[in-house]
Amino acid sequence: MAELNGGCLCGAVRYTTNAVPEFVGLCHCTDCQKHTGSAFAIMVRLPKTALQIQGPIKTFSKLGDSGNPILRHFCPECGSSIADEPTARPGMINLNAGTLDDPSLVVPTLEIYCDSALPWVQLAGMQRFARTLRPV
Ligand SMILES: [Zn+2]
Ligand SMILES: [Zn+2]
């Protein structure tokens, strides 16, 4: 895959990666709805070591379903939600695809936490999971 570049709304935070995503998926969980201010998060799952972030990232931590914290990274200047880090999956990070310079470079193939999906979200050709991708 080509290099993926992105950043926040104000430009204070920038990131780049060369990694091939493990997957691109939508998360309908209520925490992702809050964090992104939208119907779902578009997650680009990458090894954390393959992602270079520059800028004044702030992190909010909240326990996820697994009982482990999910670290949610955002720009303290403009509030853009950049990524989340499920500590139940050590070493992995989920970029929020809406912050990519060209979000069309990634295409989601699966949806998780469909249990809390908004009823009007009806997408064709997706692999759907009620909650997590696999047993924790
Ligand atoms: Zn910003
Ligand atoms: Zn979520």
Structural key phrases:
136 residues; eight-stranded mixed β-sheet; globular; three-stranded antiparallel β-sheet; Metal Binding Protein, Guanine Nucleotide Exchange Factor, Chain A; mainly beta; binds zinc ion; 11 strands
Element order: H for helix, E for strand? EEEHEEEEEEEE
Strand order of the largest sheet: 6-7-8-9-4-3-10-11
Total count of strands:
11
Count of domains: 1
Strand content: 35-45%
The major sheet is characterized as: 8 strands, mixed
What ions, cofactors and ligands are bound? zinc ion
Number of helices: 1
What structural class is derived from the secondary structure elements?
mainly beta
CATH architecture: Beta Complex
Binned, the helix content reads: under 10%
| CATH class category | Mainly Beta
Give the C-alpha Rg: 14 Å
N/C terminus separation:
29 Å
Oligomer: single chain
- State mean pLDDT (0 to 100 scale): 94
Shape from CA axes?
globular
**CATH topology grouping:** Metal Binding Protein, Guanine Nucleotide Exchange Factor, Chain A
What does this 3D model show about the protein?
The relative contact order is 0.25. The longest helix is centred in the first third of the chain and has 7 residues, at 30-36. The chain is mainly beta. It is built from 1 helix and 11 strands. It has one domain: Metal Binding Protein, Guanine Nucleotide Exchange Factor, Chain A. A hairpin with a 5-residue loop joins strand 8 (81-86) and strand 9 (92-96). The strands form 2 sheets. Strands 6-7-8-9-4-3-10-11 form an 8-stranded mixed sheet. The protein has a 3-stranded antiparallel sheet with strand order 1-2-5, with no helix packed on it. The mean pLDDT is 94. The N and C termini lie far apart (29 Å). One zinc ion binds next to helix 1.
